[in-house]
């Protein structure tokens, strides 16, 4: 017994879940390959790491230098010694420093060819004798002048026996060598370049040399005197302007007017010391390098502090800056891990690879119209979203879990050094946002190929922009943090930022043994900000995606509310013209069409359950596009179809039949008018209509890997069939369409022939005994025997169902349809049962005769004698066809005339036929198209 109660939400969700589960079982290896993709990508990263270890981490340049002390007779080294004395400046970074050396506090000064030029000393550039310039400004010029004099020492203290400790600390020493990444081997001391003693005035005795030992190394340094010039500027604007305009001109090698330091004393007085220091930050090196170089700022701070102390306490009071010193350390090795270095870029791509998979899956169902056909059979949006989202979430969760497991098992510190719970929560939020974006973006695509290209552009574009743009701005200290937040609103950058934080914490732990990312560091990192962004975007994207999906599935314009604000209403003249055209159209309607309209109007006034489908003056107008005028596809159709009736729609291509079916099935909305199915409005209650509707589309919409039986089980569950009723209905449906025997029911639909797919589509539309069924050319592609069997199935099914059928087969229409409507140019031209139409439009016989060409005139005279009002339809190669009105002739008279003609000339063939439904169709179509200009 058939259950006509609409299926509940859980029933429909269960039907889709079972169908998807069966579908995924058939594609199990595709899912397995998808889940293990992280394993292969992690192996690739391990291979890159092994190559990097061989070429970089384990190279001789990246460890403390060694030298063979004792050599064997065969030339091999028996004992070697390692230390700073055998190391280059790069190798020294990795040597052990149990007792780090004392280092001179040096001031960074420009090279001679780059120093600022004073107007009075313009020729110093040629002699390379330009002074080292220090600029001073402030609110108190007299105080500034005093502190300027106190900046530099006027005497030189030092001799060749000093090891640059306390005596040299009284002098202002500088170097043109840039600092390195560490102070273990400062280039200012360990290079061949001299050290400069900066004094207000140089005298010959101020140049000297001295020797010293440091970590088993002996150095000989030359100390040269260089003049220091303190210049006053009126305000900080002048200093900024001088630095900006003169620092770099021309190419990068031409650096001029560089100063050593500048001081803004602001409101400094005897009771308050307030100063701003300018220094050259370009000596830090490239900010993209994690190892930023030191800058020699401490000596600049000491100079102005010392000058202020002398201003307060006298010239004999000084703050001695003896030396700087590094922390002791053991011997180290380079331990750079590629997963931490390129992890943000690499794993951004790994996680985003799921996005094209989800997007193409959604667009595929849209392109193949599988989503539409499921909805037409009662599957609502909510069950579809819930089951599809759950599937994507399950696959994505397994994907990221396998990524974490494989990465940890292989030993990638990116995963091992960070808390797994934080990683999982972050990935879980990211994949949820990614699924929501896939649902949202799928509304914008109708083809899988286009969606796939766009998805991969998003994947690789996000990674590349993150690695080569976002990360540089993130590490740049001058880029506003508020703009970093704005950039993180882009989902690709928020994902990249989270991975960047994981890589930084893993890198630091690998380098110096600190903790990786833990929950206790969560608020101190940027992850809290990223989490909030992802959660909010996830929520908003879900809402937007659902909104767009409902609009697209209901054929509404997403921006309709904007268009209404700018809508232009028609002028009175246009309205009057439209009324005139409507009046002409009404006058052209035939009596049977007018009677159908009156019946519909009566049904609208007095609702009745006897008619399942009622269409009241329904119209569809497609807007103008690409300069083309508006297209009126359906021009005011009024139709009532009762239960147990099969109504056939005939018409030429482009007549509007498909537009009418699309409106009735909810694919497009009517422009004007209304239609009701079982009293439910198709504009407002389509979801309820779907629960009692069946559709056989013109093209078979099937899953290639599902069997015919599995298709019917799925659609049967959507019709609320359960248990034995479901199995019985499926079995009977398969038997009726001859798909039960020989194991055909258990074969994948992709292996069916075209006729078998067509029969399955008809069986799907009729399962569950729906109240209304739309069939678009159901017997296309079938052989005569299968076609007749299918007609029998449809005729049996219409007992308790209202069926609207479109066909180009007059034989099919005459066999199946209780009433026919011929549809031309968007309007019903006639309506009635086949006998009525043939009687109304077929009041003539068709007479055909074939003779030799010289007897054609004789045939014409014969026909004119029989029927003076006969019309010649055509003639070709001696064959002529005439239309003879029935009221003017009797069949016996035609036979007598032909027998008499045979005695006068040779007749090869002749015939007399009654009007067929095909003749009626052609006649109505031609007559209607002749008046096309009025509609």
Automatic annotation (TrEMBL):
A Pfam family reported for this protein in Swiss-Prot or TrEMBL: ABC_tran
One of the record's GO cellular component terms: membrane
Domain of life (superkingdom): Eukaryota
Keyword DNA repair: no
Keyword check for Transcription: no
Transmembrane annotation, as ranges: 32-52, 341-364, 384-412, 424-445, 451-474, 530-548
Annotated keywords: ATP-binding, Membrane, Nucleotide-binding, Transmembrane, Transmembrane helix
Domain ABC transporter: 613-850
Gene3D superfamilies named among the record's database cross-references: P-loop containing nucleotide triphosphate hydrolases (3.40.50.300)
GO molecular function: ATP binding
InterPro entries found in the cross-reference section: AAA+_ATPase, ABC2_TM, ABC_transporter-like_ATP-bd, ABC_transporter-like_CS, ABCA, P-loop_NTPase
Subcellular location: Membrane
Record's bilayer topology term: Multi-pass membrane protein
UniProt similarity note: Belongs to the ABC transporter superfamily. ABCA family. CPR flippase (TC 3.A.1.211) subfamily.
Name this polypeptide is given: ABC transporter A family member 4
Organism from which the protein derives: Cardamine amara subsp. amara
């Amino acid at each position: 017994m058939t259950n006509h109660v609409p299926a509940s939400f859980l029933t429909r969700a269960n039907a889709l879940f079972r169908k998807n589960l069966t579908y995924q079982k058939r594609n199990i290896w595709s899912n397995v390959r998808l889940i293990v993709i992280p394993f292969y990508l992690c192996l690739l990263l391990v291979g890159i790491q092994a190559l990097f270890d061989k070429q970089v981490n384990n190279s001789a340049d990246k460890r403390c230098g060694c030298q063979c002390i004792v050599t064997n007779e065969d030339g091999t080294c028996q004992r070697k010694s390692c230390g700073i004395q055998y190391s280059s400046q790069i190798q020294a970074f990795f040597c052990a420093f149990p007792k780090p050396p004392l280092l001179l506090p040096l001031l960074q000064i420009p090279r001679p060819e780059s120093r600022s030029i004073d107007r009075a000393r313009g020729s110093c550039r040629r002699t390379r004798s330009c002074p080292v310039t220090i600029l001073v400004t402030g609110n108190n010029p007299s105080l500034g002048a005093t502190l300027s004099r106190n900046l530099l020492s006027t005497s030189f203290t030092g001799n060749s026996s000093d090891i640059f400790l306390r005596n040299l600390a009284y002098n202002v020493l500088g170097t043109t060598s840039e600092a390195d990444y560490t102070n273990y081997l400062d280039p200012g001391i360990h290079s061949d370049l001299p050290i400069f003693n900066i004094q207000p005035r140089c005298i010959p005795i101020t140049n000297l040399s001295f020797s010293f030992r440091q970590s088993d190394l002996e150095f000989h340094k030359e100390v040269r005197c260089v003049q220091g010039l303190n210049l006053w500027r009126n305000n900080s604007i002048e200093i900024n302007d001088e630095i900006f305009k003169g620092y770099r001109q021309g190419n990068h090698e031409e650096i001029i007017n560089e100063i050593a330091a500048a001081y803004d004393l602001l409101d400094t007085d005897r009771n308050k010391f307030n100063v701003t220091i300018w220094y050259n930050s370009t000596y830090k090196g490239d900010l993209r390098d994690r190892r930023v170089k030191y800058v020699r700022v401490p000596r600049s701070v000491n100079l102005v502090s010392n000058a202020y102390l002398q201003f307060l306490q006298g010239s004999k009071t000084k703050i001695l800056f003896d030396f700087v010193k590094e922390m002791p350390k053991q011997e180290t090795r380079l331990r750079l891990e590629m997963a931490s270095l390129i992890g943000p870029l690499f794993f951004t791509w790994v996680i985003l690879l799921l996005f094209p998979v989800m997007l193409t899956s959604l667009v595929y169902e849209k392109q193949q119209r599988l989503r539409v056909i499921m909805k037409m059979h009662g599957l609502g949006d909510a069950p579809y979203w819930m089951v599809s989202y759950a599937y994507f979430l399950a696959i994505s969760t397994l994907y990221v879990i396998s990524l974490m497991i494989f990465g940890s098992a292989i030993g990638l510190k990116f995963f091992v050094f960070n808390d797994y719970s934080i990683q999982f929560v972050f990935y879980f939020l990211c994949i949820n946002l990614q699924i929501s974006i896939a649902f949202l973006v799928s509304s914008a695509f109708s083809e899988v190929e286009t969606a796939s290209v766009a998805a991969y552009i998003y994947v690789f574009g996000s990674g590349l922009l993150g690695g080569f743009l976002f990360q540089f701005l993130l590490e740049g200290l001058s880029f506003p943090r508020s703009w970093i937040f704005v950039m993180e609103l882009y989902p690709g950058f928020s994902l990249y930022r989270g991975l960047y934080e994981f890589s930084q914490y893993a890198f630091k732990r690998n380098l110096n043994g600190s903790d990786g990312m833990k929950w206790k560091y969560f608020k101190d990192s940027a992850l809290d900000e990223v989490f909030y962004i992802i959660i909010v975007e996830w929520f908003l994207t879900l809402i937007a995606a659902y909104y767009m999906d409902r609009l697209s599935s209901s054929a509404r314009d997403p921006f309709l509310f904007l268009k209404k604000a700018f809508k232009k209403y028609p002028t009175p003249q246009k309205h009057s013209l439209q009324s005139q055209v409507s009046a002409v159209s009404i006058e052209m309607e035939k009596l049977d069409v007018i009677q159908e309209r009156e019946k519909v109007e009566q049904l609208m006034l007095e609702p009745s359950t006897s008619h399942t489908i009622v269409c009241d003056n329904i119209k569809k107008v497609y807007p103008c596009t690409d300069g083309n005028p508006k297209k009126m596809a359906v021009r005011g159709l009024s139709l009532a179809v009762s239960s147990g009736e099969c109504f056939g729609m005939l018409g030429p291509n482009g007549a509007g039949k498909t537009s009418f079916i699309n409106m009735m099935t909810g694919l497009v909305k009517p422009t004007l008018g209304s239609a009701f199915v079982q009293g439910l409005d198709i504009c407002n209650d389509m979801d309820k209509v779907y629960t009692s509707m069946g559709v056989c589309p013109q093209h078979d919409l099937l899953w290639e890997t599902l069997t015919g039986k599995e298709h019917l089980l799925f659609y049967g569950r959507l019709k609320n069939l359960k248990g034995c009723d479901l199995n019985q209905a499926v079995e009977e449906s398969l038997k009726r369409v001859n798909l039960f025997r020989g194991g055909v029911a258990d074969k994948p639909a992709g292996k069916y022939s075209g006729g078998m797919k067509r029969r399955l589509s008809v069986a799907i539309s009729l399962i569950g005994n729906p109240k209304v069924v739309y069939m678009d050319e159901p017997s296309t592609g079938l052989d005569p025997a299968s076609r007749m069997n299918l007609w029998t199935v449809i005729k049996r099914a219409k007992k308790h169902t209202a069926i609207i059928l479109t066909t180009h087969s007059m034989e099919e229409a005459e066999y199946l349809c209780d009433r026919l409507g011929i549809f031309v140019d968007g309007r019903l031209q006639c309506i009635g049962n086949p006998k009525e139409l043939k009687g109304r439009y077929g009041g003539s016989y068709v007479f055909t005769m074939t003779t030799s060409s010289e007897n054609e005139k004789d045939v014409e005279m014969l026909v004119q004698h029989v029927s003076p009002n006969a019309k010649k339809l055509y003639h070709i190669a001696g064959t002529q066809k005439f239309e003879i009105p029935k009221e003017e002739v009797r069949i016996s008279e035609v036979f007598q005339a032909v027998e008499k003609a045979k005695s006068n000339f040779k007749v090869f063939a002749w015939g007399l036929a009654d009007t067929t439904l095909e003749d009626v169709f052609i006649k109505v179509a031609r007559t209607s198209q002749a008046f096309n200009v009025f509609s």
